[in-house]
Amino acid sequence: MDILKKCTAFITAAVLSVTPITALAATGTAISSVSLSISSEIEAGECGGDVTVNSSSSKFSVSDVVVTNEPDDEWENGDKPKLKVILEAEDDYYFASGFSKSSVNLSGSDGTVSSVSRSSSELIVYITLDALEDEEGDYDLTVNNLEWDEENGTAFWDECEDANKYEVRLYRGSSAITSTFTTTYTSYDFSSYMTQSGYYFFKVRGVYNSSNKGSWEESDTWYITSEEAEEISSSSSSGVAGPGSTTGTGAWLKDSIGWWYCNADKSYTVNNWQYIDDFWYYFNESGYMVTGWVNWNSKWYYCGESGAMLTSTTTPDGYDVGSDGAWVQS
Questions:
Q1: Ramachandran region, residue 135 (left: φ > 0; alpha: ψ -120 to 50; beta: rest)
Q2: Across the strands, what pairs with 177?
Q3: Using CA atoms, how far apart are residues 310 and 24, in angstroms rounded to an integer?
Q4: Which of 17, 81, 153, 174 could cross-link with 129 by S-S, CB 3.0 to 4.6 Å?
Q5: Are strands 28-31 and 93-95 parallel, antiparallel or unpaired?
Q6: How far apart are CA 25 and CA 154, in angstroms?
Q7: Is residue 303 packed enough to be buried (19+ CB in 10 Å), middle (13-18) or exposed (0-12)?
Q8: How far apart are CA 305 and CA 307, in angstroms?
Q9: Contacting residues for 214 by C-beta, under 8 A, at least 6 apart
């Protein structure tokens, strides 16, 4: 996976439907993106292993799943199972032209989309799962000494020897105010999310792989006033000039799948929005920038070709969006 090479962090999967607003066409309603949930029981040292692929969409169904590189004997450590997933559009729906790898969102077992092939009624998705690892042995994934840097809103913790990465999340009061972020560092800058007064704390856990994660550990609570929140959040800077540029706080990068944004601490946003250089961008569960329609908290938003969310305008397919970017339903 290119992200792993460039940013040394795996992507933590989470489920969010990113399905565009439908638009009537001569042959029915177009399907512009799909979300698939993968559950793999393939293990190193074992023969066979079931793989299931599901979707909650009513617009298409999963008709077949084939492991295309199943070995004659046992799976070996380091093998990457490859899947051929066939989707069929339901009546009155069709798969839109221009369908690409970035139009497919994956959750569950870790993997990446290798390629897609489509006709109006059928979409074939080729998926490569992450390399198999022996699950023998126990891992110490306990994270200790969670602390705040109260000058800049950065969370710190001690390194965990068996952890390949960490998952972190910020809370205010009893509510989570961020999704779960993934980083290979032992710190995370939450300053841009600390925009108002309140009692803040963060949680972190060590991760060996998708099957071996430690328990969530919780930091002490830190109360900040409105003035302190304004000072901390305004001191954060995630601005860049656009795809291809870099700053001291992050960089836009591109691989064979699409654009993604690598923060200064080698983390990247998944299944969430990030504010970059005065624009909001949405990143899917694989960490890639999304274009087109995004369904977020029961509202629809449109990200243009550059990835930036549109506001106070009409989208290319003829829908009005307000100053907050949400679709204005008449």
A1: alpha
A2: none
A3: 22
A4: 81
A5: parallel
A6: 49
A7: buried
A8: 5
A9: 139, 141, 142, 143, 160, 163, 205, 206, 207
Number of residues that make up the chain: 330
Backbone angles phi, psi at 292, to 5 degrees: 95, -155
User: How far is it, in rounded angstroms, from Cα 37 to Cα 21?
Assistant: 21
**Percent of the chain scored above 90 by pLDDT?**
37
Residue pair 193/170 in contact by the 8 Å Cβ criterion: yes
**How does DSSP assign 183-250, residue by residue?**
ESSSEEE-GGG--S-EEEEEEEEEEEETTEE---EEPPPEEE-HHHHHHHHHH-----SSTT-EETTE
The answer to whether 45 and 75 are in contact (CB under 8 A) is yes
- How far apart are the C-alpha atoms of 68 and 90, rounded to whole Å? 26
Q: Residues 213-245: pLDDT tens digits?
A: 889 999 999 999 999 988 887 765 433 323 333
Tell me, yes or no, if the pTM score tops 0.90. Answer: no
* Strands 147-149 and 51-54, bridge-based pairing: unpaired
Residue 36 φ then ψ, to 5°: -125, 140
Give pLDDT tens digits for 59-116: 999 999 999 998 877 788 778 999 999 999 999 899 888 888 888 999 888 889 999 9
Q: Residue 88 and residue 307: Cα distance in Å, rounded?
A: 29
pLDDT of residue 243: 35
- Residue 49 near residue 109, CB atoms below 8 Å: no
